[in-house]
Queue: 4 jobs
Job 1
Amino acid sequence: MALEITDGNIKETLEANKITVLQFSAEWCGPCRMLGPIIEELASDNTDIAIGKVNVDENSNAAVQYGIRGIPAIIFFKDGQVIETLVGVQSKANLQAKIDSLKA
């Protein structure tokens, strides 16, 4: 299950995990709802890394900090540093390939 990431726990989540993948989204966003189940599947398939969701309406500080201008946005972190940002709905295969490259 994907983690619920907030303004209050994002820093500690990034510090505690070598690889973190976060989906920035909102309840009212149709494409975000399409991507949600894919993020959940990735979280189940990759239990060795942190995969979570950030609701931008409830956690605006995190959204501003990472320059979120369009949702859904997926940010890949390694050692707390942003490696790549993708905007829009992505296929599970594409996201898994990015995760695999970070694990390598």
Note: Strands lie at 3-5, 19-25, 50-55, 73-78, 81-87.
Job 2
Amino acid sequence: MTAVWITIAGLAIANAAIKASGPVALGGRELPRAAIDVIALLAPALLAALVLTETFTTPDGDLTIDARAVGLAAAAGAVLVRAPLLVTILAAAAATAAARALG
């Protein structure tokens, strides 16, 4: 077994243990409303952080403004005018492609 597969197996076991710890620790009790509200905000916050990190950083970790930022701005504009998701994606792709073609 290679080191890669040992790492994958270890991560799978750790993931299962982490997921099982919640029901084991709480038993059948309900979470407080404040905890549920915070948990509901985690996914959008994480998604926003990932989008911004991928848009404004280089593989070296440096800050950059390039065609990806133009696409993000176009997507944000489409969201502001409440465009459908497909239109938003197409606007972002078209703006990014145009910025790369012109720049």
Note: The chain has a mean pLDDT of 92.
Job 3
Amino acid sequence: MALLLDTGVLYALADADDDWHERARGLLHKRPDVLLVPVTVLPEAAYLIRLRLGPPAELAFVRSVVAGELSIQSLTSRDLDRIAAVMAQYPDIGFVDASVVVIAERLRLRTIATTDRRHFGKIRPVHVKAFELVP
């Protein structure tokens, strides 16, 4: 089964001092799923890693992507339309979070790995009553 990852979990995995680090690591050790990441999440995660942890950490993140540790999910034109609709319905949700929602909907995934309970907890996806947010 596939697990969709948001920026916060990717950052937490990179930063051993992050409050979510152990929970994120534990989740991935318990769930040997295919790790899906929307293409929109990559620059946001890379930016945060570089800003807070430095260029070597960002390079390590990029190398993990190159090595195929993450399955990158592209956006379709339909996805872009739905992203706009999600952003209009939930004004607190930005483009990146909306893209995570839309890819989860398209792939009919119930679970999102995220540290962002505030935003994702509000969303009512089209395919399930609510997302299961982990870790």
Note: The mean pLDDT is 96.
Job 4
Amino acid sequence: MTTRWSLVLAAGGGDSGVAGTAMEALCRDYWYPLYAFARRAGQGAQDAEDLVQGFFARCIEKAYLAAADEGRGRFRSFLLVAFKRYMAKEHDRSRAMKRGGKQTPLALDALTTEQRYALEPAETWSADRLYERRWALTLLERVLGRVEAEQAEAGKSVAFEALREFLGL
């Protein structure tokens, strides 16, 4: 499953209601992969959360997603490059500004982020490789949730739960 470019375009568009809904969906999909990237890149748990939240706030504020172009490659690559640039700029500003600044944190799955990160493989994977892995697993979790909902709607929840263990996820 690839990124729904209509969602990316809507998030970067001008209609604030549609853009907000689209941006919320993108934040939910990409928040943890970016958090895992920041952690693997050497950030502490709180700093990684702040970086991801600040990055998405900046994306909204500066309409960064309007620059995303399907013809130039994968959206997740675009987002990762933008996040790396954001992290570099924030590193430069970190000495002058206290953690959090004037921005209100955006809590997305905040209760389990560090618990999830603690389960990441101990291998010395690069932050880039971990980001790609987390994106793929997040995508699988989302798809599995959709299949589970479809099976429940069809009255096949019991069969789905019995077969779920064989999916290897």
Note: The CA atoms of residues 8 and 65 lie 7 Å apart.
